[in-house]
Amino acid sequence: KREDGEIDWGQDAARIARQVRAYQPWPGAFTRWRGKLLKVLEAAELAVHGTDAPPGQVIALPKGGLGVATAHGTLEVRRLQLEGSRASDEAEFLRGHADIIGAVLGR
């Protein structure tokens, strides 16, 4: 079902990365940001797990990437699509939506 694709940031990063891969193309993995649907099209678990951010909080990665804190580890979001926009890689998305850093997804 469509709702099966909703990301639970309370899971660990490895599980969410598998969900993103498994649910492409249908039903797709998604979350919410500012009341809009945010599709996560490609993601990977990061080897570095140290973060004090709460699950779902977007963090800037050291090399300019986009990460999301999970219950256990950090998920690097490599490709995403905000509702009403075209799909883009993390760098392109951050150029247009730098204010996502620090936001908590899923609300």
Quick description:
The protein is of the alpha+beta class and about 110 residues long.
General description of the model:
The protein is α+β, with helices and mostly antiparallel strands and 107 residues long. The chain contains two helices and six strands, in the order H-E-E-E-E-E-E-H. It has helices spanning 13-22, 90-96, and strands at 29-33, 36-45, 58-60, 66-69, 74-82, 88-89. Strands 1, 2, 3, 4, 5 and 6 form a six-stranded antiparallel beta sheet that branches. The longest helix is centred in the N-terminal third of the chain and has 10 residues, at 13-22.
Number of helices: 2
Helix content: 10-25%
Unreliable residue stretches = none
List how many beta strands DSSP finds: 6
Compile the SSE list and pairings.
Elements: H1 13-22, E1 29-33, E2 36-45, E3 58-60, E4 66-69, E5 74-82, E6 88-89, H2 90-96
Antiparallel strand pairs: 1-2, 2-5, 3-4, 4-5, 5-6
Provide tags for this entry.
107 residues, alpha+beta, six-stranded antiparallel sheet, 2 helices, 16% helix
